[in-house]
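User: Some background: our group keeps a shared notebook of sequences we're curious about, and every so often someone picks one and asks for a predicted structure to add to the entry. Today it's my turn. The entry only has the sequence so far, pasted here. Could you supply the structure so I can complete it?
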Amino acid sequence: MSSQTQVSAHIAASTKRELDEYAEAHGLKQGYLVEEALRHHLRALRELPADVIVPTRIVVTRESGARILERIAKPGKPTRALRKLFGKR
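Assistant: Of course. Here's the predicted structure to add to the notebook entry:
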């Protein structure tokens, strides 16, 4: 039998609701879900390059938001590599 320890963490109420709903819908214990999620996340952090890890929250400043809106309004032309990827020349 493996040894266990208890951890305590503050989480958002919305995250708790999602955990409750998922555990109930799938007949799983919350402790099992939390441990599996932590194992999955920690393994990804260990084995994947940092630039492929997508953060769960992205902070958009006023300046970066303005740049995003500008790129949406006036998208650039696709690069040669992108055209090649999609089979267009």
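Suggested note for the entry: The CA atoms of residues 81 and 89 lie 9 Å apart. The chain has one domain: 13-85.
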